[in-house]
Amino acid sequence: MVKTYRNFKTNLLSNGVMLIGFDNHDKPVNILSSSVLEEFAFIVEDVLTDKDVKGVVLLSLKKNSFIVGADINEVSAMASRESCKELVGKVHKLFHSIEDSEKTFVAAIEGACLGGGLELALACNLRVASDNEETVFALPEVLLGIIPGFGGTQRLPRLIGITPALEMITSGKNVFPKKAIKTGLIDDLVKNIPVENRKIENIESEALISVAIQRALEKRKVRKVNLLNKSLGWPLVRNLVGWKAKRTILSKTDGHYPAPAKAVEAVISEDETPKLLELITSPLCKRLIDIFLMTEKMKPSKIDCINPARDCIGVLGAGLMGSQIAVSLVGKGYTVNLRDLGMEQLRAGMERILGIEQKDLLKRAISKTEFDQRLLKIRPTTDWNRFQKTSLVIEAIKEILEWKVKLLEEFEGVADENTVFATNTSSYTVAEIAQKAKHPERCIAMHFFNPVRSMKLVEIGVAEFTNLSTVTKAIELSRQLGKIPIVVRDSPGFLVNRILARYMIEAIILESEGVPVRDINSAAKKFGMAIDSGRAMGPLELIDYVGTDTCMHVIRSLKKLGSRVEDRPIFETIMQKQYIPDRIKLSQDKITQRLILPMVDEALRCLGDQIVKEPEYIDMAMLYGAGFPAFRGGLLKWAANEGLDNIKSRLKDLQGQYGDRFAPFENFKI
Ligand code: NAD
Question: Which of 233-242, 340-349, 657-666 has the lowest mean pLDDT?
């Protein structure tokens, strides 16, 4: 018998299994908002008392997603600890009633099972999941400055063991189905082909749901506690594990992000609510949620002008960036023509690609078949034969302008008129590269950041002559690759490198003055500067990481902006490692000011030059492309908090002390 609610549809099957289908009203995905939870509690209460119901299957009627978590807008609006405590108390009661029920509750999971969604699945007796690329499990709460609050910190360690649970809870990272079955997070993995036109009436014929129904008819499974988990019942062992986990977290976050350490405390003390309440009303949580909401706003409305099943992408240059970009493309199902000058360069590129894919295989993020398929999708070549049919080409050859101009000419000789030419240049403008192009309208920049896999930003550099369909294709492809595309005006260094150049130049000048490299890097790291999903990194380490050649090109290209980014002789000397200065001591605060304040100045100049229209884009770009610390809310948000007048006067002081490169922009406002 089928029943329809505002956010659910249920179907009581003749064998006594109740299917409860989550189907959030007016939303593309299922979210556990307070109104959804209220309705769900009402349905669960009915089910628990209905003698005809023998078992229950929880499923989603949305395509490719189970439940993506709690309602972030509600979390953000949580005015007081009391209101949070009340909501959490209700959810705990509801989840306990599922956990303690005599009836077997099975979560049938296909697609994203995140945050509160996973916590609900953990309260079920069994979890069966679909073995496809969309299915993923995570408790990402720490990334928002909070901890799982619906029992996740308690049930997960009991289910999979304390060490893997701590890893999942404190990192917020995704776990894919193959790893999930190995750790015991799920009980069955099913090859599922969703039925056409998924409805609660016809869904039982799906392989996943049919397995879940069989499981729901079984007696409740009593989980055995393994020896290691038993030993964790001893306070001494628990405290030791907790102490070790907190020490590792502290070494990674330097105390800037309290949520992971609080999550450890919640696991060890077996009491999560007080820790959640402490965090949820903090300004840091608010800042991180603002960033999350802004990021969501930038996510797709799907355009489908470019399609992995149909389109082949070309990558020119199999070096550091080209090979990583190729990996991202095949990961999303694209076929890639990878061109370099000779077999030796291609071999080196393919080895790099193999290394990255092997890591995924080892982590069980992909199966051996997927691994083989991905590699088969890359077609290394030294000629242009296959390039006529590519829909978009990403140029990632050496940062030498004449080479890039010549390459574009060669490309135009073979590619058809609609093929987009996207350069990954760090320092030249699209206009410079397309100076001899016959079809400049299809030229654009897609500036990826290193390492491509973890740096989410792609700057879409749009020249005056770039046409709209080119812009749309570049944005859509970036989004398909899971990136955050930010459209920037075509100009030297685009946005991030222009701002970051000020920081790197100052770091080199500090080094040339004799300030120890360690002090320079450590001041930046203490401020929170990082790369690659939060790995702390100082400016001089960043220069080594990106490559001195690339940095030199960026800084040289910015010379045209004026004396503040002058290509100093001292800079050249340092790069060539010929100048060994005397050591001097400078306070950490002074070093931090000299590194960070010029970035604020340059960001305001970028706004003045309309490189982007809104200050929020600068904050997002610096966060996802330059490792500016999320806990500070963004470069310009931080500056506004400090007070722009205050920053301006500190810059003037620095100008008096160190010279005109610190002279603040005259229009010093946001
Ligand atoms: P790289 O030196 O590692 O690789 C460049 C590759 O291009 C080499 O394998 C080279 O043989 C090949 N090549 C040269 N001319 C070619 C041609 N005509 N056709 C095909 N292949 C050719 O360089 P990289 O670090 O990967 O940088 C590539 C581009 O990406 C540059 O424009 C750089 O500024 C930009 N970029 C670099 C980084 C970084 O961190 N290194 C970050 C963002 C953007």
Answer: 233-242
